[in-house]
Specification:
alpha/beta; 12 strands; D-Maltodextrin-Binding Protein, domain 2; eight-stranded mixed sheet; 307 residues; 3 domains; Arc Repressor Mutant, subunit A
Length: 307
């Protein structure tokens, strides 16, 4: 049953004033059409809403219930308008982000925290998946935004580089090279290395291969793994490893991280991708925060190893 909203508006004013003359003045109506509107509403509902005498107007129990519900409807209407406007501005709704596992060691956690502080009305849904799985998820709208490694972003997904960090040498703190600030890739290739399993860490497997080829020397790969397990193998003495600099805060009591310079030095990238037809304004808000974080970290990195 649909009720004319104009009849409800008339009744709400009458119920508040409990006086037909004052209600008519507020609504800029004469009393006869106002009374007709109230009677029509009572007929549609099949109940008496007001008890009228020559001296007073009172709400019946049904009228009091309708007044309460009209108040709730008005509050819900205001909330709906507010939430719709917030969603349009990126301050409400949901943002589903796909994360490649290694992204957790970049500036993503700080960006997620900053986003939640600035946009508390937006619900974040984080999905960890391999970079190779994300383009399809974007096309099928299972993701709003993908943070993935560059080779996997289709050109039609508007990939944007967001974060770049140097690859550094990770080795045990008791290793002779641990006290150095910099090494060359040629020196790295003199060491037994823990490499990356291609099937589980395709991007870093490609990165390491490019670094080896640029240095022009063969590598002694003694074991293959993936982030962060690769650091466990370094700690266990299997060999050294070439890892993104963001891992340098892990196991610093046991491991050392040394910058790499010269031929073969490389910067790993993290890319943002989205479907171009996705209108979610929270995507741009999060990407902007990621850019801010990257700019601050680039300025703070200064002369640290791998900068």
């Amino acid at each position: 049953m649909l009720i004319d909203s104009r009849l409800l508006q008339v009744f709400a004013v009458v119920a508040e004033e409990l006086h037909f003359g004052r209600a008519a003045q507020r609504l800029h109506l004469s009393q006869p059409p106002l009374s007709q509107s109230v009677r029509k509403l009572e007929e549609e509902l099949g109940v008496q809403l007001l008890e009228r005498t020559t001296r007073s107007v009172r709400l019946t129990s049904a009228g009091a219930e309708l007044q309460r519900r009209i108040g709730r409807m008005a509050a819900e209407h205001e909330a709906t308008v507010r939430h719709v406007r917030q969603a349009a501005s990126g301050d409400a709704g949901q943002l589903t982000i796909g994360l490649t596992p290694s992204a957790a060691y970049s500036n993503v956690p700080q960006a997620l925290f900053a986003f939640r502080q600035r946009h508390p009305g937006v619900m974040l849904d984080l999905q960890e998946m391999n970079s190779s799985e994300m383009p399809e998820a974007l096309h099928k709208r299972r993701l709003d935004l993908a943070l993935l490694r560059p080779p996997f972003a289709d050109a039609d997904l508007a990939p944007v580089p967001l974060y770049a960090e140097p690859m550094v040498l990770a080795l045990r703190g008791d290793h002779p090279l641990a006290a150095k600030r910099w090494v060359t890739m040629a020196q790295v290739l003199d060491l037994p290395l823990v490499g990356y399993a291609r099937d589980r860490s395709r991007y870093f497997s490609q990165v390491l291969r490019q670094m080896i080829e640029a240095a022009g020397k063969p590598a002694n790969i003694v074991q293959e793994s993936m982030i962060p397990t690769i650091l466990t193998l370094v700690e266990a003495g299997f060999g050294a490893a070439v890892v993104p600099a963001s891992l340098a805060r892990m196991r610093m009591d046991i491991l050392a991280y040394v910058g790499i310079r010269g031929p073969g030095a490389f910067r790993a990238e993290l890319t943002a991708a989205r479907h171009p037809d996705n209108p979610n304004p929270s995507i741009d808000a999060f990407v902007e925060i990621m850019r801010e974080m990257s700019g601050k970290q680039a300025g703070a990195r200064g002369g640290r190893p791998g900068a």
